[in-house]
Amino acid sequence: MESFFTGWKDPDLTDQGKQEALKGAEELKKYGYTHFNIAFTSALQRAQKTLDIQLKAIGQEGINVVKDQALNERDYGELTGLNKDDARAKFGEEQVHTWRRSYDIQPPGGESLKLTADRVLPFFEKNIKPLVEKGESVLVAAHGNSLRAMIKYLENLTPEEIIKTELATGVPIVYQIDSDGKVVDKKILQ
């Protein structure tokens, strides 16, 4: 299967993505996570469709959904649209690896994970965190790097720790957060 740097491009959700979204919803249901007060997603249709599939599967259609580009995937700049193998052939394996996995080195014209976090975290702190601290149940359907930015914040990870953090596509991670914004429990549903 080909793998592309999609970043801020807005392709539709693939059949595999639809299956992963449905599997994630089934895991939410299996563990009893079927009621959310609000949902957040990015401005990109693949995340929105993932959320739609999950809300339908858990019977939560019609809840308030906030869509914002602050939750968009990392902007890969000049790598956007390139097949990952082609990018490695063009720029070299080591350089592409550095762009993909370093915390603060960005690809040409794109965002590093740090810059992604600089965009995601103010939105999280203003819009999501206050709801969770009040005890509301919030569902976020976003992208690997925007989610990694939130995970770094929630788990107080160092740049070195977050670049080693892998997220399985479509696998829900449930955080329980107290009224002071501290993580008191984390579950990976798979």
Automatic annotation (TrEMBL):
> Mind telling me which residues the site (Transition state stabilizer) is annotated on?
143
Keywords, alphabetical: Glycolysis, Isomerase
Name the source's superkingdom: Eukaryota
Q: What protein family does this chain belong to? A: Belongs to the phosphoglycerate mutase family. BPG-dependent PGAM subfamily.
Instruction: List the molecular function annotations (GO) for this entry.
Output: phosphoglycerate mutase activity
* Name this protein carries in UniProt: phosphoglycerate mutase (2,3-diphosphoglycerate-dependent)
| EC number(s) per entry | 5.4.2.11
The UniProt entry, under CDD domains, shows: HP_PGM_like
**Gene3D superfamilies xref list:** Phosphoglycerate mutase-like
Which positions bind substrate?
A: 6-7, 46, 73-76, 84, 100-101, 144-145
GO BP term (any one): glycolytic process
Tell me the SUPFAM superfamilies matching this sequence: Phosphoglycerate mutase-like
Q: Give yes or no: UniProt keyword Metal-binding.
A: no
